[in-house]
Amino acid sequence: MKIISSLWSSQNGRNLTVQILMVAAFLGLVWWLVDNTIANLARQNVATGFGFLDNNTGFDINQKLIAYDETSSYQRLLLVGLLNTAIVSVLGIFFATVIGFMVGLARLSDNWLVSKLAFLYVEIFRNLPLLIQILFWYVLLIEILPHPRKSLALWEVFFLNNRGLYLPWFTTLPGGGFLLWAIGLFFGGWFLVAREARKMRELTGRNRAYVRNYFIIGGVCLGGYLSLWGVPFEANLPALRGFNFRGGLSFTPEFVALLIALSLYTASFIAEIVRAGILSVSKGQFEAAKALGLPTSVTMNKVIIPQAMRVIIPPLTSQYLNLAKNSSLAAAIAYPDLVSVFAGTALNQTGQAVEIIFVTMSIYLFLSLFTSFVMNIYNARVALVEK
User: Which pTM was predicted?
Assistant: First the structure.
């Protein structure tokens, strides 16, 4: 009794006791939920576990970045859906960032027409529900674009019709995989060399020839490899065969509509974030740069934007997370993302609702945490360091 009374008599003891009780209550709630779920599933004779991931799916999908057909397993289907979600999220983040920065700068333009057009863009796309925008672009692509025989063509290698977007691609020949890995390592090394060269320039004020020599050595190695073993790639151009295009790299109308909607919708929020970030920079910085005679482009790139990024990055991270999560609305137009094919079709076929929803939630949680982790690293790099 003395120990219990001592736990409650001091502030630290009360805090510790309350925290222990809260953790115990949370674990008890989790145990009750799990036990109740298992009992209900057993009562309904529903199988549990993740063994279904090895079974064949029995259906094919039209958008896939890796080999997949109806004989593939649900495990493979999960990977296909994840890659489809990842590619539309990554491309959406890229285009939304580019458009958002352009519109944000246009909002601050001295040109009245440019500023008002940017204002209209933000107000229109920010205030329309994203689902409506996705359906709008999808219907527009399906109804407005011509059929494959009358495709919109650019240089006879890019084609757009109501079946999708077709781009030239390449086929990897023997030795191509090795060359791709070598090129990837080369650019990774270039990043490290450029970073060291920049550090040396900041310390000594002199430019070193590291980067130039690195590219010369890399170019000689690449030229030697290609002269000895030839080019291990072959052009793969899309061509009309029968009722549709074959070959090249193709994207379905669902993918294009989802990408356009996500990019334009998120860019309208990013534009306001960029505008607010630039306005947060002291007006004296503009005046000082102008007094030094710096051009506007140099003032923005070297003075204003780096300082504004410290304000822009935290809300920008939230927009990236929202874009990745909003990609789950793809189910409305049957784009085969993670939610549509795994938490939709696979769940209906197997009935493994608990396992599938748990895996889907875990993947989205991981994607969000990974995005936050990367952005926090970048935020730490551009943060103001006080000595």
Answer: 0.78
Cα dihedral 312/318/319/322 (nearest 10): 180
Cβ neighbour number for residue 62 with a 10 Å cutoff: 13
Three-class SS of residue 276?
A: helix
Question: Looking at residue 122, what is its pLDDT?
Answer: 94
How many Å apart are CA 351 and CA 345, to the nearest integer? 10
pLDDT of the residue at 2: 62
* C-alpha pair distances (Å), 299 with each of 123, 179, 278: 28, 41, 12
Q: What is the mean pLDDT of each successive set of 10 residues along the chain, which is 387 residues long? A: 66 82 92 83 74 84 82 89 91 94 90 93 93 91 81 80 81 76 84 79 72 79 78 77 77 89 95 92 85 83 85 91 90 87 86 86 91 86 65
3-state secondary structure of 80: helix
Q: CA neighbours within 13 Å on the CB side: how many for 369? A: 6
Can you read off the two tokens belonging to residue 315?
Answer: 């809300």
Angle between helices 74-107 and 305-326 (to 10 degrees): 140
Cα 106 from Cα 20, distance rounded (Å): 54
Compute the distance between CA of residue 32 and CA of residue 36 in angstroms, rounded to an integer: 6
| Region label for 64, one of left (φ > 0), alpha (ψ between -120 and 50) or beta (otherwise) | beta
The 3-state DSSP class for residue 153 equals: strand
| Amino acid at the residue 89 | S
The CB-based long-range contact list for 338-347 (8 Å cut-off, 24+ gap) reads 338/78, 338/81, 338/82, 338/84, 338/85, 338/363, 338/364, 339/81, 339/85, 340/81, 341/61, 341/77, 341/80, 341/81, 341/84, 342/74, 342/77, 342/78, 342/81, 345/59, 346/57, 346/74, 346/77, 346/78
Report whether 321 contacts 372 (CB < 8 A).
yes
Distance from C-alpha of 124 to C-alpha of 268, rounded to nearest angstrom: 9
Instruction: For residue 172, give the nearest of 234, 257, 92, 108 by alpha carbon.
Output: 234
- What residues contact residue 77 under an 8 Å CB cut-off, 6+ apart? 57, 61, 68, 341, 342, 346
CB neighbour burial string for 16-36, b if at least 16 within 10 angstroms, e if fewer: eeeeeeeeeeeeeeeeeeeee
